[in-house]
Design goal:
The protein has 570 residues and is an alpha/beta fold. Helices cover 30% and strands 16% of the residues. The strands form 8 sheets. The chain has a 5-stranded mixed β-sheet, sandwiched between helices. A 4-stranded parallel β-sheet has the order 2-1-3-4. It has a 4-stranded parallel β-sheet with strand order 13-12-14-15. Strand 18 and strand 19 form a beta hairpin. It starts with a helix and ends with a helix.
């Protein structure tokens, strides 16, 4: 309760922890500044856009370089452009700093956003954006050597396993992606196909993950990889992975070039969970993290212990995920929380979730509360569970401190699946996620991966079967699967009060029922004893302005008239 009544000093006195291991050095020369922040590519992007107001978004660890970058861009563009140019520094974003803060940019009437640092590779919904990914030093020759050793290790046949890994996905973190063209060229160097400017996306059991073409970044014009042409495309942390026809994402291991403490490590561990179940290997064996340096002082055992710690954290969260999937079946009122403003497709995802929840016979409310925390969501006691529509890094996994369960869109579909059905073109009913061709893994936190799922399309309907019930696995409560319900006519509703041509009727609504069950019924209990909180007569409300309502004028005039009458009588 203290978090609801404190004076705000706790927030003012809090300290921001900056991970210096991943940050750029404080002192940079002019050449190092141009290289680290890709100043030449930023100049070209601004000049090509024709923007006169540009927003520069920096995370906390790069904010100290904001003035130098802005001054450098201003000096360079004054000589190149004929019009005046204004820069705005964006910091302390409402949500995660890895997401483009379009709302803050619109407040400054910006026409272009340049995002620096770690990013979720998501474009803003309306404003054009450009992502400067950063540059970590990568030993390309050592990377190829480590990749070759890992491929031989992970593809070794295990006679005791039911299935085997069919390949390895080569994944680069955002600050190491600049080395992807060189590494992939060296990996394909001994093949005749390397002479082409468009290298294959899969070579020697290794599939490259690339940034989508819709996301603008400095390396977009130097990519040697052929464009995506197949429907067998998956996404890991915002990057596209086009697998050969017939291959599945859950039969691949991952070789990650990046930092061991990067947020992408947890997301990759989530992605390889099903691979571990199918192959009998541990998730830590299906993920190799290499920081880009052959002579790094980081011990291999230390890296392994860190991955083990991340995996233990993931396993605990996943155990609760199954509980939440069962819990949402009991929910009558579901809140959809919009926890990001800079991810394209969020508004469409919210609309599809609202439609799906309604088809399942439940009530949906859309909330915008900024960055979710316990005091904010505790205000909505009538809501049974929350669905968080946010970026990958903003999706909450540990929700034990929250008063109500918090789920991802994918987990919501899993929980509501018994209430829904959808038919494919051949007339077959989809009963599980595994029956769709573009199905992501259950542990995918990216809502963009399920945008085209059949259960989110307008063709989905409620189950046509008669009312059935099953026992919940979490509370032994009966959960009813209700068939299609026709809209109740007006004359079938309970009439509470009638006056003239107006009427007040009572509809069955889960939210209203929650209010009726509350112990506190208002300050005047006599008004609620007659009909359980519903008025027996319709009275006219106040009208006019708050300083002097219309009925106050009538009262004053009537009082004045009485005084005049009394005076005349006397």
């Amino acid at each position: 309760m203290a978090s609801l009544t404190d004076d705000g000093s706790r927030v003012i006195e809090s300290q921001v922890v900056i991970h210096r291991t991943k940050a750029v050095p404080s002192s940079l020369s002019a050449a190092e500044l141009d290289d680290q922040f890709d100043i030449p590519s930023c100049i070209e992007s601004i000049a090509a856009s024709g923007a006169t107001r540009v927003a520069l978004q920096f995370p906390d660890e790069l904010l100290e370089h904001a003035t130098a970058v802005s001054s450098r861009l201003t000096a360079a563009l004054q000589e190149k452009l004929n019009h005046q140019l204004e820069f705005f520094i964006l910091a302390d974003t409402t949500f995660d700093s890895c997401v483009v803060d379009e709302v803050a940019a619109l407040h400054a009437n910006a026409q272009l956003i340049i995002h620096f640092g770690y990013t979720m590779l998501a474009n803003a919904p309306t404003l054009p954006s450009y992502h400067v990914l950063g540059k970590r030093v990568v030993d390309t020759a050592g990377c190829v050597k480590e990749l070759q050793a890992y491929v031989e290790e992970v593809l070794t046949k295990d006679t005791t396993a039911k299935e085997h890994c069919t390949g390895v996905i080569l994944l680069f973190d955002t600050d190491t992606y600049h080395s992807m063209p060189t590494v992939w060229k060296e990996w394909c160097g001994n093949d005749e196909a390397s002479s082409s400017s468009n290298l294959p996306r899969t070579h020697q059991n290794v599939t490259i993950a690339t940034i989508p073409q819709s996301v603008r970044h400095p390396t977009e014009n130097n990519s040697p990889v052929s464009p995506v042409t197949s429907a067998n495309v998956h996404h890991i942390h915002g990057m596209e992975v086009q697998l050969p026809d017939g291959d599945e994402l859950r039969s691949h291991a991952v070789f990650l070039v990046g930092d061991i403490d990067s947020p992408i490590v947890v997301q990759v561990l989530l992605a390889v969970q099903l691979t571990a179940q199918r192959t009998g290997k541990q998730p830590t064996q299906l993920l190799k993290v290499w920081n880009g340096k052959t002579d790094c002082n980081t011990d291999a055992e230390e890296v392994k212990d860190t991955i083990e710690r991340h995996n233990t954290w993931v396993q605990r969260r996943l155990q609760r995920r199954w509980f939440l999937v069962e819990k949402i079946k009991e929910c009558e009122v579901i809140g959809i929380v919009a926890a990001s403003c800079g991810v394209m497709g969020q508004a469409e995802m919210i609309q599809r979730l609202r439609r799906t929840i309604k088809k399942a016979g439940k009530k949906a409310h859309v909330l915008m509360v900024g960055k979710p925390n316990v005091p904010k969501l505790a205000n909505f006691d009538e809501i049974d569970a929350f669905v968080l529509v946010a970026s990958v890094s903003g999706t909450l996994l540990d929700d034990k401190e929250f008063p109500k369960p918090i789920l991802t869109p994918l987990e919501t579909i899993l929980g509501l699946m018994p209430f829904l059905e959808v038919e494919t073109e051949d007339g077959n009913t989809i009963l599980s996620l595994s029956e769709t061709s573009k199905t992501p893994t259950f542990f995918d936190m990216d809502f963009r991966s399920i945008m085209t799922h059949p259960l989110l399309l307008p063709t989905v309907e409620s189950t046509s079967q008669a009312e059935t019930a099953e026992v919940s696995l979490t509370s032994t409560k009966k959960v009813f699967h209700i068939g299609k319900k026709e809209e109740a006519p007006l004359n079938a509703c309970t009439t509470v009060a009638v006056t003239g041509s107006s009427a007040v009727v009572q509809y069955e609504n889960p939210t209203v029922e929650r209010f009726k069950q509350r112990t506190f019924q208002g300050l005047d209990p006599e008004k609620h004893q007659a009909d359980k909180g519903f008025p027996t007569t319709i009275v006219e409300g106040l009208s006019g302005v708050a300083s002097r309502y219309n009925n106050d004028l009538d009262t004053m005039e009537s009082g004045k008239g009485e005084q005049d009458g009394n005076t005349a009588t006397d």
